Each structure stands twice: as C-alpha cells, then as structure tokens.
Amino acid sequence: MQQAKAPAPWLTATATAMISSTDDVRRTVQVKPVVVVGPRGCCMAHVARCLLLGQGANPAVLEVSDDGDPAALLFALQPKDNSTKVATDVAFPVVFIGGRLLGGLDCLMAMHMAGELVTLLKHAGALWL
C-alpha cells in the first residue's frame, strides 16, 4: 500500500481539490491558465478573483493557511535549474497567468488599468475571444 505524502505546512486546499504537496501546486500552475493563491478567506484574493471573472477568465483559487509565506510558495515553485530569480517581495494574493508569476494584486490591477490584462489572458488561453 502506498504511503500518503505529508502536506506542505503552508498549503491547505484548493477550490477544486485538496492539495497535498508543492508538486500539486506546480502542476496546477502549469495546467490552469490562471491561478490565484491566497490565504483562506482573504478579501484581496476575492478581489483578484472577481476582477479576473469580470474579464471573462475563470481562475483556479488555491487557499493557503493563515501563516503561509508567499516567499516560501514562490521558492517551492522555482524552476529546478535556478534559471530565474525568485521575487521575495510579493505578498498574498499571488497571481499566476499562463504558468508564470504575474505578481500580487497590485500588478494585476496595474495591468488591468493599462489595458494589458486582456491581451495577457488571451495569450495564456484563459479567454476564447
């Protein structure tokens, strides 16, 4: 019988399924065109989700424990070859579009206000039009 993996201490659940490891998080970010990661019940994650829904995208929402650390999450999602630097000044919620880190809610809002968000969502395959 297979032994269950211990869950990452900062990760608890997703909107669609339970997440048990950072590999599951990495897989979700790679498979889903838009992913919002934030603490459980976070109003700012809700704002990010609503903004994306308003643009026509349907983001996957991953909830982390209240003591979750965005820097630890980004470190866990860093490529194995260390080819890219990890931003450590990102706060929850964290938004991934097209498998790449966009940033926090501030970056999402800035792209929306600049009119660049819809284009990015189209290139990521999150919008059909």
UniProtKB/TrEMBL annotation:
Q: Got a GO cellular component term for this one? A: cytoplasm
**Where in the cell?**
Cytoplasm
Query: Per its UniProt record, what PROSITE patterns does this chain match?
Result: GLUTAREDOXIN_2
> Which SUPFAM superfamilies does the record associate with it?
Thioredoxin-like
Which intervals of the chain form a coiled coil? none
Write the record's keywords in alphabetical order, separated by commas: Cytoplasm, Redox-active center
User: Which family, according to the similarity comment?
Assistant: Belongs to the glutaredoxin family. CC-type subfamily.
The protein's name in its UniProt record = Glutaredoxin-C9
Q: What organism does the UniProt record list as the source?
A: Hordeum vulgare subsp. vulgare
